[in-house]
Amino acid sequence: MFSQPTTLEEALDVRARCGPDLLPIAGGTDIVVAMNRGQLRPAGFLDLTHVRGLDAVRHENGRYECGGAATHATLSRLPVEALAEAALSVGGPAIRNRGTIGGNLVTASPAGDGCVALLALDADVELAHASRGRRVVPLREYFLGYRKTALLADELITRVRFPKDWITAWYKIGKRGSVNISVVCCAIGRSPTGLFHIALGSVAATPIRAPHAEEIVNRDGLTDGAIAEAADAVRRDISPIDDHRASAKYRAAMSVTLVARLLRRIRDRVKEPAR
Amino acid sequence: MTQNIQTIDVPIAEPFAEPLVPPSQTPYVERPHGPVGRSEDRIDGPEKVLGTALYGADLFYGRADCFVSVVRSEPAHAEIVAVDPSAALKMPGVLGVYTHRDVRGTNRQGLIVRDHPVLAESRVLFRGDAIAVVVATSERTAEDARRAVRVDYRPLPVVADMDAALAPDAPRLHPDGNIMGGKRIRKGDADAALAAADVIVSESFCTQTVDHAFLDLEAGIAHYDGRTLTIHVSGQWVHEERRLIALALGLPLESVRIICPATGGAFGGREDISIQIYLGIAAIQHPGKTVALRYSREESMRARHKRHAMRIYYTVGATRDGLLTAAKITVFSDEGAYRSTGPAVCRKAASHATGPYRIPNVSVDVYGVFTNNNPTGAMRGFGACQMAIAYEGMMDRLAARLGIDRLEVRRRNLIRSGDAVTTGQRIPIATAVECLDAAVRRLRQCPPPRPTDPHKSRTRPPALPPHLRRGVGYSVICFGLGYGDGFPDASRARVGVSDQGRIQVFTGGVEYGQGLITMAAQVAAEELGVSVRETDVVWADTEQTFESGSSSATRQTYFTGNAIRLAASELKEQLLDIASKLLGVHPHELELRDGCVVGRFDPARSVPLAEVVAQGRARGYSLEATALFKPRTVCEDFDTGQSPRAFITYLFGSHIAEVLVDIETGEVRVDRYIACHDVGRAINPQSVAGQMAGGATQGIGMALMEEVVNRDGRIANPNFTDYILPTFRDIPPVECVILENDDPGGPFGARGIGEPPLIAATPAVLSAIADAIGVHTHTTPCTPQRVWELLHPDEAAVPPDARFSLAPPHARLER
């Protein structure tokens, strides 16, 4: 079975009627790999690539609103540093031209670069159902567990909203220059009100925020002491594992290093007098 | 010594600069004046670029009647209790399931010792051992049926690594125990010399398991007409494959024909039999049908042999001036489940254990150790690249210990022309120092502009941020070309001419991207005075070509190049003889030029080649010639490892890497890369530069990221998501410096280039990392985590002492 709607209404309708029987597919950069490995044999597809406007990025009221089918390539051209760099670090050009932010959020890999950058922007994700309508979930509440999310089997991700003018920073440690899965990645966003949003990937079952670390810099600002303390506090926010990509010890140490490095980078940009 | 130096920068995705070739006066070899020495376009280039070349996977589509799938062992070590295909056989579309009982021949494979059952009989020794072959009407059905074949195992304890294999109570994987055998070298008295040395430096090195990772996955078709089994599968030595297939399947040799399709990379990974015999089993069971099989990347990585992981214990003694006096070396090499080419890899590791250095007292012991990992065998570098990591690592350590410059320590110990390597073989033209000097000269020149960031090219950033450190690393290596060690090594070639006057070259060698057939055409065309465009090459078809030995061991240019040159020269004699009668000119006063036979002193007397051929045919000339090139080497002595001529000739090279290391995260970026090799003569400089850039890329991958992670006999990363290969962003433009000091025995003075660039690359990068962070490396690959652990040894995932668990006593001798 194969459905290729051209409007969002139609897509939501098919999704509501067929639910899990039709696997929504956009870029296919996760799904096709899983199928090739025999991990996934879907009965049919709901192809989202022809839905008008679903890949667009709009700008209103100081916020960006991008459709679920916006590609990494599209995001990599936005003037939001952490998100653009994260998107640019995904795969190679072919994968970035196909892969979408919605797919990144549905797969919800702990190493999902786009998810980490959006967490640091305190993004909202809009989940829609044909009859129940749309609900907006803050991204920090969206990830429920290892590859488990708040998205229901009859809903689609329609939009992701995030602010435009935050100061952000991004760093990813991987094993090579491109087509590179993160061993640890970190994004930090600073809102105009001076609140910090620290997000990390590949250090827990989901992409995570680091509330202990955030609390310290939100309280004490970006002094050398606060940065060191916040970076160290991130150890309480993460729960890394040993696997063939890296050891838990390395991941923990890198979380500390990256949080400190990115906070310093943001401090350099803000030129905020150290309190 | 006169030198001809060419420098070619290989900027990725940019055209070559025209190299400047200064004239060279060589005492040995006549100057080529035709295609040899020119960067002729690849003969196979257009069809590969246009996509019309047919690779194994292209044959797979549209030509097959039925499809094969292989049932593989899930446990890494188990007895097979029963194989029950009944559920699979009931599935619609399934034509048959075959086990070892259906194989009529020896059911054995293995290039040196036939110790590996094609289909397992009573026991499986690694997770990937084949058990049965399924044939069905579609690929999907064959896959489903493969899963439905029920295999009952009695699990046996898994020997996951060499420590487990050498434990006193370890299960025996082969009848003679878990030590496959090995190789030793005894030269002088290493113990006495160590006792007398001013300084002793000791280290243990761990190298990783590496996959060949060629892009063109194993795929092909086979057909059996009741008489002849024809197999279209890429290999590296089609005539030897034919022998192995015929033996395993119980067919007469003449009944097997192998035709090699276009092949995308091999690197030693196609030396062992891959899918050929499975296809043969299926084809024989279904005569008249074309059967097809292809691997996924995961199956390819699970089924294929790998590069040996080695643990190398290295102790050197030296004088205060840094002159090496002794080396004592023990190597344990993870052989995996079966021998493959392991015995030869161990021998090559031993004979290359001290590289290009002059050491009067040497003791080397290399042991191959069986485990339940994938068999390990041939891969570009063949045991020599692991040893280069060790001996170059030792040179850096010795320099640091003595406070002598790293280059100076090397220069003091490098062999010079006329010196002997550790096997006792004297090297008449040893250009190790010349390679190092040429690479260093290049380093002192400005780096070329980088295609990626043209603005930042010529000037260095004034200061690095505090977390970045810059380092430079050097390596010098030598490599014995060919099988060597007394092993029969020969190449036959046939050269003929068509009625239209086109030159036809027949070679059994395999073109897998390295440039073999273009080299073959250039050599024949040079000898016969025609252009490459007038030359056709027929290759790697057991029916049409003679055996040329394997396309491995950096040997095809030397061996097949020589065989083609000899055959072409015989053909030329015939052509001149015929023309002499037509023109009334003595043959010695004729030459072949531009497709005509021309009077040397009277160019007005000329006859086109096609006319010569027509007249020759009428007069009963064969108009073809076959030649054999079979130089002898001498087997290394069993007790001492000494041989007056273990290898036919030696190659030298030197690489320099510049890296930036992030000392907070351990990330390494290779910033600049210089490769210099003495190739004797570059028959095709652009091809040589391509091999240098490719080898350097593979070597950088081995230094920084590539690693097959074996966990309890299971490969944890059998895919390109987690088996990390370098990308364009990881490799800077490779600056290639080609030295040409003619080899007296090579075709037009050529030696070869295949393996050395990889061997030299890994130690250069490791040396640069050590220079940057001030800590020597010992374990490859140097992933960010490993570099970080070198700087934070307390945080290491594997405690540093684990490397010494197999330590022989001399590893603790340091003083």
Give structural notes:
The complex is a heterodimer of chains A (275) and B (815). Chain A has 275 residues and is α+β, with helices and mostly antiparallel strands. Chain A has 10 helices and 14 strands. Chain A has helices at 8-18, 31-36, 72-75, 81-88, 93-98, 101-107, 113-120, 211-220, 224-233, 248-270; strands at 2-3, 22-25, 44-47, 57-60, 63-67, 124-129, 133-138, 143-145, 148-149, 156-163, 167-173, 184-190, 196-201, 208-209. Chain A has a 5-stranded antiparallel beta sheet with strand order 4-5-10-6-7. Chain A has a 4-stranded antiparallel beta sheet with strand order 11-12-13-14, with helices on both faces. Chain B is α+β, with helices and mostly antiparallel strands and 815 residues long. Chain B folds into 3 domains: 56-156 and 218-294, Aldehyde oxidase/xanthine dehydrogenase, a/b hammerhead (Aldehyde Oxidoreductase, domain 3); 310-484 and 636-802, Aldehyde Oxidoreductase, domain 4, CATH 3.30.365.10; 490-629, Aldehyde Oxidoreductase, domain 4, CATH 3.30.365.10. In chain B, the strands form 8 sheets. In chain B, strands 4-8-2-15-12-13-14 form a 7-stranded mixed beta sheet, sandwiched between helices. Chain B has a 5-stranded mixed beta sheet with strand order 1-31-28-27-19, sandwiched between helices. A 5-stranded mixed beta sheet of chain B has the order 10-18-17-16-11, sandwiched between helices. Chain B is globular, with a radius of gyration of 27 Å. The A-B interface holds A 33, 36-37, 92, 173, 175-179, 181, 183, 242-247, 249-250, 253-254, 257-258, 261 and B 296, 298, 467, 664-665, 667, 669, 704-705, 709, 711, 716-717, 719, 721-722, 724-730, 783-785, 788-789, 792, 795, 797.
Number of strands of chain B: 31
Low-pLDDT stretches of chain A are none
Identify the strand order in the major beta sheet of chain A: 4-5-10-6-7
Low-confidence region ranges of chain B:
11-28, 454-458, 809-814
What is the average per-residue confidence, as pLDDT of chain A, rounded to a whole number? 95
Structural Rg of chain A: 19 Å
